Amino acid sequence: MGVCTSRPTAGVALVTVDFPPVNALPVKGWYALADAVRAAGRDPGVRCVVLTAEGRGFNAGVDIKELQRDPGHTSLIGANSGCAEAFAAVYECEVPVVAAVAGHCLGGGIGLVGNADAIVAAEDAVFGLPELDRGALGAATHLARLVPQHLMRALYYTSRTATAAELHAHGSVWKVVPRPELLDAALGLAGEIAAKDGSLLRLAKAALNGIDPVDVRRSYRFEQGFTFEANLSGVADRVRDTFGKENSP
Q1: Counting beta carbons within 10 angstroms of the beta carbon of residue 116, is it exposed (0 to 12), middle (13 to 18) or buried (19 or more)?
Q2: Strand partners, 104
Q3: Which of 210, 93, 100, 220 is closest to 164 using CA atoms?
Q4: Best CA proximity match to 215, nearest among 118, 107, 113, 141
Q5: How far apart are CA 24 and CA 22, in angstroms?
Q6: Are strands 48-53 and 175-177 parallel, antiparallel or unpaired?
Q7: What is the distance between the alpha carbons of residues 240 and 93, in angstroms, rounded to a whole number?
């Protein structure tokens, strides 16, 4: 359980997340993920990183139960900072990052894949931000990188999800494959990328980030300010207390 890094093929680092049962990451998990991605990107022998997960789904966001157990704001602050670091680590990774997504990709998962350079998804993958159902705000910055603006808003307000096929139609998912073929497909794309000159890839990544129209770190931190406001006002606790209960609004 946790985050581990392997080298399945030359030039490719595979970062795997495993926090059963649904990959809802605790505070330490977000920091561990950030550290693993940054370390892989700094490795001169790595020319592409593949980010994937074990278990039922790619990522279920923040561990809400960890927040519920904390009577203060320590866990919330930790989760906010940890998510920001993990998302930034993917975006700022010195080499391209390919996200291999199966099952649910929710909340913080959107922050990860929205900052990746490419996404390969299993046919059962679904993407969404259930933040309004969990007493939080955030990662609209990253969802907006996956779907058009008005669809992003409708998904955000309703907490609905989009399928891998739908994101493929919007051009944000590179390829959709049966779940058993996911890792091979992601490693195939990563291998094609890793065949390029490593120094030139690093320059290309920096260049593409430099012309990005949105400062994703700043805009996400702006969103998080409203999450903390919701907590201070008490509305976040009121909504979060319904998490996991039947017939919740």
Answers
A1: buried
A2: 126
A3: 100
A4: 141
A5: 6
A6: unpaired
A7: 33
Least confident among 152-156, 218-222, 223-227:
223-227
Q: Compute how many other C-beta atoms are within 10 angstroms of the C-beta atom of residue 175.
A: 16
The first and second tokens of residue 108, run together, are 């913080």
H/E run at residue 104: strand 104-106
Q: Does the predicted model carry a pTM greater than 0.90?
A: yes
Q: How far apart are CA 240 and CA 121, in angstroms?
A: 30
**What tens digit of pLDDT does each residue of 117-146 get?**
999 999 999 999 999 998 889 999 999 999
Could you tell me the two tokens for 56? Answer: 């039922």
Q: What is the DSSP-derived secondary structure letter of residue 180?
A: G
175 beta partners: 120
Which residues have CB under 8 Å from 12's CB, separation 6+?
46, 47, 48, 49, 50, 187, 190, 191, 194
CA–CA distance, 131 with 128 (Å, rounded to integer): 9
Mean pLDDT for the chain?
94
Q: Is the confidence at residue 244, as pLDDT, over 80?
A: no
- HSE, CB side, 13 Å, CA atoms: give it for residue 91: 23
* Per-residue pLDDT at 245: 64
Q: Which of 216, 43, 2 is nearest to 113 (CA)?
A: 216
What's the token pair of residue 106? Answer: 């929710």
DSSP 199-222: HHHHHHHHHHHHT-SS-HHHHHHH
Polymer length in residues for the chain: 249
